[in-house]
Design a protein that fits this description.
The structure is a single chain. This protein has 221 residues and is of the alpha/beta class. It has one domain: 3-Layer(aba) Sandwich (Rossmann fold), CATH 3.40.50. 38% of the residues lie in helices and 17% in strands. Helix 2 crosses helix 3, helix 4 crosses helix 6 and helix 5 crosses helix 6. The model has no long low-confidence stretch (mean pLDDT 98).
Length: 221
């Protein structure tokens, strides 16, 4: 069985503009964000999707609906929204300035940024460190995050519309795309910066294995 996922990062939101962490919290798409969605919708207008999924956040659902409205093929799937595909939950750091949040997470280890944590300890540790720094410890650690996301992919692959050769639209989030790239990118993808809003990455599921063939609109060799 082979399935190709078209992973699209949602359009720019106000929290993106203001450099705030935005996991389960939400903010509206900006005018640039609406433009992001329209542009990627035009780019993918000729792709026949057998299924379409997003998280249940308004930024992801709105992006998905704009893309689907621009599709010109002979089949229009209904959008399925699952909480499993939400962005990482940042606990009490939701809505906080990103740079300050990652400084707090890395400070006990002598690190000052998300990139430094990734370089010294890996992407998984960014989640564990932020949960430890959260006074309420509500933020998701790595195991909690992947249990939720893996369940989402299991549900998706059980969709009767997702058969061999299917193409699936999946509206995703910045840190989730980095997490997927860390797990399935075969060390070929930079993990320092989130992909652009409205960018397209392609993830293939084949023979029960996942691998990226492009990321952030760039082909992977």
């Amino acid at each position: 069985m082979k399935v190709t996922f078209y992973l699209v990062r949602h359009g720019q939101t106000y929290f993106n503009r203001y450099n705030k962490l935005q996991g389960w919290s939400n903010s509206p798409l900006t005018e640039n964000g609406l433009s992001d969605a329209r542009k990627v919708g035009e780019k993918l207008s000729g792709v026949r999707f057998e299924a379409a999924y997003s998280s249940d956040t308004s930024r992801a659902m709105q992006t998905a609906k704009i893309i689907l409205d621009k599709n010109t093929t002979d089949f229009q799937p209904e959008l399925s929204c699952l909480a499993n595909f939400r962005e990482e939950f940042y606990g009490s750091y939701e809505g906080s300035n990103m740079d300050i949040a990652w400084l707090n997470a890395g400070a006990p280890y002598g690190l000052k940024s998300y990139a430094e944590i990734v370089d010294d300890y890996g992407v998984a540790s960014t989640k564990d460190f932020l949960k430890a720094a959260d006074p309420w410890h509500d933020a998701e650690n790595n195991d909690e995050y992947w249990a939720r996301l893996d369940e989402g992919f299991t549900k998706l692959l059980e969709d009767p519309n997702v058969k061999d050769g299917a193409k699936v639209l999946l509206i995703s989030h910045g840190n989730t795309l980095l997490s997927l790239a860390d797990r399935y990118g075969n060390n070929k993808i930079s993990l320092h910066a989130r992909p652009k809003n409205g960018s397209v990455s392609k993830l293939v599921y084949e023979d029960r294995q996942y691998h990226f063939i492009s990321f952030d609109d760039k082909e992977i060799n």
